[in-house]
Model the fold of this input.
Amino acid sequence: HQLYISLYEELRGDYAGWLSRLLLFLGVNPAFVPAHSEVPSTPHLLKLRGLQQFRHLGNRIIPGRIRTRIKKHVYQERLPELHAEDQAILVRYYRDNILKLQDLIQKDLTSWLH
Done:
């Protein structure tokens, strides 16, 4: 096997087991324990889509402390809420694809259908 497929739910549910299986797949001693580091996981969605094209330019010419202040006004910190009706539409639309993917990767994706 040359392809390791992992789901985010597996990582969140059992990080140590997930890491051990990944290391075993890579041929690394599964008892290896990497140094722990915290990585903040905050979504950064542009409030104003037209600003996307200027993001990289701003990173080069605007000092870091000023960029931090600007980001508070330009980015939203929380993902928009997905309403139940919209979720139901998406599940119906992607149902067949989810079932095909489930068969292909041999993982239970029934939670994606709710």
Remarks:
- The chain has a mean pLDDT of 81.
- Strands lie at 45-46, 75-76.
